[in-house]
């Protein structure tokens, strides 16, 4: 019997369904965490477990039979899964983007490509590749990294700059380069087994390559132009749920150390950990920091969602609020993991303890482009009228 046999697999239709199923999946994911890391990708039964929770359809619109979770619910869903296994939550976060991509592809094309509500899409959207215009579409060439979840994906997206007659093509809005995202089936790409990393090993974020791959123009899109309207049709829609992973990581670590502290006694003094000032202070400080950043994440998401639903154009300060909260979540989570690993000391370095894996996961996810210092530079530039180095992190695409 695989772990997926222990859960109901009927497709969930409501936010309550998928959140409940995420909670039920947590102990099952914890059981498989060692295997997930060792295999450097999600085992097939773990993928099916995620599918049974509704992970890959949470953003599917209600008029198409989906639960259509809002950003706060999506983030809570990912946060819950992350308390079970970080790599699984990361892959769920990536895989649930398919319905959001569909809003930029168009109704007919989306129906043609995504025939299954649980279709999984992976890949890097940044314009690393080159797309040369040919009759009917593009010839795509390039090699992309960080294809999280590509080992179980149905489709792969690849960002590229468009060239016409060998020259860079300006964007429709007059920018020097035209950034498009092209999509094709996974088996049309060459996947390279490159994911040998410190942390997030189970995400299977391998390199992939396209060699003279023809992609119909209809199977490409720009984040600057959505085919439907609404708050989920903004470029940063795929970024909003990302803080769920570090928030869930920090919660898992805190719960683990709190449980440990209740039963542990200092070997030198014989004093229970629960009575030691240093232990008490560190646990409280970590809870304070996690509570503050969690409120920042959910509060900024809620405010932004209300403004977008009301059709109000965001001010610079309103735009960056979710960006700062997202970046801060990655920073605070790593800080909490380091702090608590130091508290547990040598016991944290032995494999039976998950602290070693959590520490490496925290360090690896902190290197993601969306959590790096360039994001803060971009925020500062946007607030001061300067030039952001990573405008997409702010939801700006021209």
Automatic annotation (TrEMBL):
UniProt keyword annotation of Chloroplast present: no
Keywords assigned: Oxidoreductase
Domain (Acyl-CoA dehydrogenase C-terminal) ranges: 246-372
Gene Ontology MF annotations: acyl-CoA dehydrogenase activity; flavin adenine dinucleotide binding
UniProt keyword Oxidoreductase, yes or no: yes
Leader peptide range in chain numbering: none
Record-annotated membrane-spanning stretches: none
Name of this protein: Alkylation response protein AidB-like acyl-CoA dehydrogenase
Upper taxonomic lineage: Bacteria, Bacillati, Actinomycetota, Actinomycetes, Pseudonocardiales
